[in-house]
Amino acid sequence: MGKVIASExxxxxxxxxxxxxxxxxxxxxxxxxxxxxxxxxLIANAKREEFGVVKQVADIETNQDFLTRAFRDMxxxxxxxxxxxxxxxxNTRSQITRVPEDTFRQLAPRGIISIRDTVNEIxxxxxxxxxxxxxxxxxxxxxxxELRYAVELANMxxxxxxxxxxxxRQLCKLEEFLRTVGAIV
Length: 185
Prior knowledge:
Blueprint: E1 10-14, H1 21-32, E2 35-38, H2 39-47, E3 56-57, H3 60-73, E4 81-85, E5 88-91, E6 96-98, H4 101-107, E7 111-116, H5 119-130, H6 136-157, E8 161-165, H7 171-181
Parallel strand pairs: 1-4, 1-7, 2-4, 3-5, 7-8
Antiparallel strand pairs: 5-6
Helix pairs in contact: 2-3, 5-6
């Protein structure tokens, strides 16, 4: 098992591709002045390459090693921040694959926000943003596995977890969660 590397004030925001993680993180940033980082951006910068729109990942474990290394090099200090990423990814055989548990143990988030949305909305975003088409049963399965794993990780790490429905935009639910973890008073 790897060494814990994260700041003690990180909240992991997870959800499948196209669910609206960045949008929700922007709302939290604008409303509560909590910084936001993207796991994909940290990985791409550490690897010195850009990710394309294709969502399949060749070596999930190696990518997560780049994430933990990039994270180790960040100078976060004691301020609260959000890290958006995934609990599950799509491998090169188009299979839903869990990100290694050790990645989350190393990142050691203080809480988890899982973002959900309707499969139809997600499908529409992926089409308009990335020109990708996924069938609805696959997206439903992907989202269900993402949430199932997030719950398992939160229970295993004994940290708070909330499911936020992107289409509801209930800021009070996020505010209550942020108070629970101590990110706001």
